[in-house]
Prior knowledge:
By secondary structure, the protein is an alpha+beta fold.
Amino acid sequence: MSARAQALQVAKTTYKCALALGLEVHAWLDSEAYEKDRKVSDQELSEVRIKRNKFHGEWNYEVHPRPKPSIR
């Protein structure tokens, strides 16, 4: 099974569980190509916009996109 097919299967399974339990899940396919085995520096990781949930923020969090640079 390809990585894309596996990701789709995970999304479908998560969605079914969420419906059964009354949870809310948001997911979408990112078709961008990414470099394999790329190491992320501490500096890069510190720039990631993570919003942690009050309840178990180590498990429950949102990753937000970087703000778009303002055009002058």
